Amino acid sequence: MSDDTPGFSLDLSDDLREVRSWIHEFAETVIRPAAAEWDEREQTPWPIIEEASKIGLYSLDFYATQFFEPSGLGIPVAIEELFWGDAGIGLSIVGSTLAAVSVVANGTNEQIGEWCPQMFGEPGDVKLGAFCSSEPNAGSDVGSIKTRAVYDEAADEWVLNGTKTWATNGGIANVHVVVASVDPALGSRGQASFIVPPGAKGLSQGQKFRKHGIRASHTAEVILDDVRVPGRCLVGGKEKLDERLARVREGKSGGGQAAMKTFEASRPSVAAMAVGVGRAAVEYAAEYARTREQFGKPIGTNQGVAFQLADMQASVDAARLLTWRAAWMARNDKPFVNAEGSMSKLVAGEMAVRVTDQAIQILGGNGYTREYPVERWHRDAKIFTIFEGTSEIQRMIVGRAVTGLDVR
Ligand SMILES: Cc1cc2nc3c(=O)[nH]c(=O)nc-3n(C[C@H](O)[C@H](O)[C@H](O)COP(=O)(O)OP(=O)(O)OC[C@H]3O[C@@H](n4cnc5c(N)ncnc54)[C@H](O)[C@@H]3O)c2cc1C
C-alpha cells in the first residue's frame, strides 16, 4: 500500500459497534440454538430468515446501509457475527446478496430498484435471490460457460438455454441472475448477466446437492429451457453490452467480465464468513481447554494445547486484518495492486479449515461427535477453500499480481 493512503482505522464507529452487538445477540440467541437442527434437516431455515427479516437484518436496506458504511467494514463486521452463529444459516441469510451485488455492480438504477427488493421480500413474505454462474464444465474456468443468451429483436426478449450448477438458493429463489454467453467466440468477454424474473417459464431446479457442510444452505442445479426474459433484464442494458462487445471485437480492452467482477467484489465478504467460523472455534476450544482436566489439571495448562490456541487466535486475527484491509480498499476505490481481495479470501479460508481442525483436536473424542459443534464447524469451514474461487484460483490471481506474469 502506498504511503499516502489515509483513513484506515481499526476503530469501529459507534453505529457499527451497535450493529455488531445487535447481530451478535441474534446470532447467539436465534441462530446458534437452531444450527444443529437445520444442519441435520439439510433445508433452508425459512423461519430463521423470517425472524431476521422481522428485525430488519434480512433486508436490502440493511445491506445497502452496511455496504455504504464509509470505513468499508460494515459488511465484514456483520457477516463475521452471522457466521460466528452458524455458517449454513448464515449463508441462507446472506446468499441473496450475491445476486443483489451482481445487479448493483453492473446494473442500471432502474434494474437495482426493480429487482433487488424482490430478492428479499418483506416480513411475512420473505424471498431469496440466486446468482448462477457455475456450470458442470465451467467452475474455475468461468470463460467456458455454455449457457447461451440469444436476442429476439422482434419481441425485445432474450432467450436463455443451458444448465447451471452449484447455485446457492437455485430453483427456490424468487429472482435468479444468470451469467450467459452472448458471443461464445469471445469467451468470458462475450458474457453478460441476465435477471430471470419470478415465475419465468422454462426455469426449473435440477438436482439438489447433499453436502459435507453448510447443509442448511440450499445448493442446486438450475435448468434453463428456452427461458424468455424481457430486454430490460439484461444487466446494464443492451447499449452498454453492444459497446463493450464492439470494443472487444476491435481488440481493445473488453471492460468488465460480468462474473469475475461480481466475484472480485464479494471476496472479502467470503473471507469474513471464514473469520466468523474460525473465531467461533477458537473461543469454544479455549473454554474447553480451561475446564477439561486431565492429569489433575486443565488441559490448557499444557504448552502443547496453549500453543495451539495461541496459533489459532493469531491466525484468526491475521485473517481479519487482511479482510478489513481488503474491504476498506474496495469501499475507498483503492486499486487491488496485489489482489488483496483474493488474498484475504485465500488466507481466511485456509485458516478456518486449519483452526476448526485444531479445535476438534483440543476437544478430543468429544470434538469428533455431533454433541459438540466443532465437527460441524470443520465441515462448514471447508467450503471457504472452494466456492467463490478455490484456494488455487486465489493463489493464481495473487501470483499473477505479485509476479506480473501470466500464471496459469
Ligand atoms: C456449496 C457451494 C455453493 C456454491 N454457490 C455458488 C453460487 O451461488 N453460484 C455459482 O455460480 N457458483 C457457486 N458455487 C460454485 C463454486 O464457485 C465452484 O464449485 C468453484 O468455483 C470451483 O469450481 P468446480 O467445482 O467446477 O471445480 P474445478 O474448477 O473443476 O476445480 C477442481 C480442482 O482443480 C483445481 N484447479 C482448477 N483449475 C486450476 C488451475 N488453473 N490451477 C490450479 N488448480 C486448478 C481447483 O482449485 C480444484 O481444486 C458453489 C459451490 C459450492 C460447493
**Small molecules in complex:** flavin-adenine dinucleotide
What is the string of helix and strand elements? HHHHHHEEEEEEEEEHHEEHHHH
How large a portion of the residues is in β-strands, by DSSP E? 5-15%
Model regions low in confidence, pLDDT < 50 over at least 5 residues: none
The percentage helix is 40-55%
What's the overall geometry? globular
Q: Oligomerization state of this entry?
A: single chain
Specify the structural class: alpha+beta
Count of DSSP E strands?
11
Number of helical segments? Answer: 12
Largest sheet: 4 strands, antiparallel
Q: What would you report as the Rg, rounded to the nearest angstrom?
A: 22 Å
The first-to-last residue Cα distance is 26 Å
The main sheet orders its strands as 4-5-9-8
Let me know the average pLDDT. Answer: 94
From the structure above, extract its key features:
alpha+beta, binds flavin-adenine dinucleotide, 11 strands, 15% strand, three-stranded mixed sheet, 12 helices, 51% helix, 408 residues, four-stranded antiparallel sheet, single chain
